[in-house]
């Protein structure tokens, strides 16, 4: 039998309106009374009908996050940050996944509209133009996470130029002039284009030309890292002395390929990664990395929505990153 608000009110000997205000943190009641009502509701097994409450208030308490079906493990950290902020503010987080299939994309879009989400968070995603237009038409606030999509949509991300500039500066300071960018370098996504462009620009600042820059890979996978030095280049005669991996998984792939060929890191090749998750500490050797604060990106993005800061104008918020030096870079000066 479903326990209703009326049942709780009768057990507490209070009006339905009073119990409703207490359970939704509205109105002024003594802490003793509020605590007693919450205990009664919990013991009776009362659960708030959020759908009915949303319908009555004409305001959804759900927000949606759209995640690429193929994603790296940093997505979990961002979702944790979003989840913490949504729970703390009384919202519900609806997680959906998006691939390249237009029928599935339509289904995801319809799910978001059916749930009447209050906002949509796009996680490292180049959303299809038609879906972007539809979301805009519906006046649903959109926040991009980890990448800047255009001049209209707010974003919470790391400063990609600082990320790349810090890594190139670090490698050059150790004497490396021939450097590879390995991972997602295909130029078909927003973030891959930005990183490739920033890599070239950072090299130029050190008077290094395109002849000093090498590129390999179409994604952020472990396999791409492994294959870069086993199939992309001759592992016994690499034309570069250092590699920047576009994700931690890529970096671990490079390290394992070198180890399998009895080539030591960093003596045979220096490796640094972008993301800085626990995986970089588990690698042997441990990897030098630029660490992004993904959980904070999620928390800040949710708070932007809660504070209604994105209804007025676009905001770009950069969350600081940190270079963590470990054992994967050799000083060859």
Automatic annotation (TrEMBL):
Pfam (any one): LacI
Keywords: DNA-binding, Transcription, Transcription regulation
PROSITE patterns assigned to the protein according to its UniProt record, in alphabetical order: HTH_LACI_2 (PS50932)
Residue ranges occupied by any HTH lacI-type domain in the UniProt entry: 3-57
Top-rank taxon, per record: Bacteria
InterPro entries per record: HTH_LacI (IPR000843), LacI/GalR-like_sensor (IPR046335), Lambda_DNA-bd_dom_sf (IPR010982), Peripla_BP_I (IPR028082)
GO function term, MF aspect, one: DNA binding
Name of this protein: LacI family DNA-binding transcriptional regulator
């Amino acid at each position: 039998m479903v326990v209703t608000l009326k049942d709780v009110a009768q057990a507490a000997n209070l009006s339905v309106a009073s119990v409703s205000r207490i359970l939704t943190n509205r109105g002024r009641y003594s802490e003793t009374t509020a605590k007693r009502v919450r205990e009664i509701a919990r013991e009776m097994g009362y659960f708030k009908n959020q759908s009915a409450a949303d319908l009555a208030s004409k305001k959804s308490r759900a927000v949606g996050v759209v995640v690429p079906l193929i994603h790296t493990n940093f997505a979990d950290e961002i979702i944790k940050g979003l989840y913490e902020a949504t729970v703390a503010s009384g919202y519900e987080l609806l997680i959906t996944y998006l691939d390249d299939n237009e029928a599935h994309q339509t289904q995801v879009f319809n799910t978001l509209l059916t749930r009447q989400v209050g906002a949509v968070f796009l996680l490292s995603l180049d959303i299809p133009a038609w879906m972007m237009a539809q979301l805009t038409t519906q006046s649903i606030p959109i926040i991009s996470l980890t990448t800047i999509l255009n001049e209209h949509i707010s974003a919470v991300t790391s400063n990609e130029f600082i990320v790349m500039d810090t890594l190139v500066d670090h490698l050059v300071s150790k004497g490396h002039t021939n450097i590879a960018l390995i991972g997602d370098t295909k130029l078909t996504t927003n973030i891959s284009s930005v990183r490739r462009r920033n890599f070239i620009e950072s090299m130029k600042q050190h008077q290094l030309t395109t002849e000093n820059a090498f590129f390999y890979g179409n994604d952020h996978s472990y396999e791409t890292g492994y294959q870069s030095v086993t199939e992309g280049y001759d592992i016994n005669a690499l034309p570069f002395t250092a590699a920047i991996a576009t994700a931690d998984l890529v970096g671990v792939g490079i390290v394992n390929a070198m180890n399998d060929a009895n080539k030591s890191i960093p003596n045979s090749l220096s490796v640094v990664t972008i993301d800085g998750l626990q995986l970089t500490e588990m690698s042997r050797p441990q990897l030098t990395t630029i660490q992004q604060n993904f959980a904070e990106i999620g928390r800040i993005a949710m708070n932007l929505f809660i504070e209604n800061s994105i209804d007025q104008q676009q905001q770009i918020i950069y969350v600081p990153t940190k270079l963590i030096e470990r054992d994967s870079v050799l000083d060859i000066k």
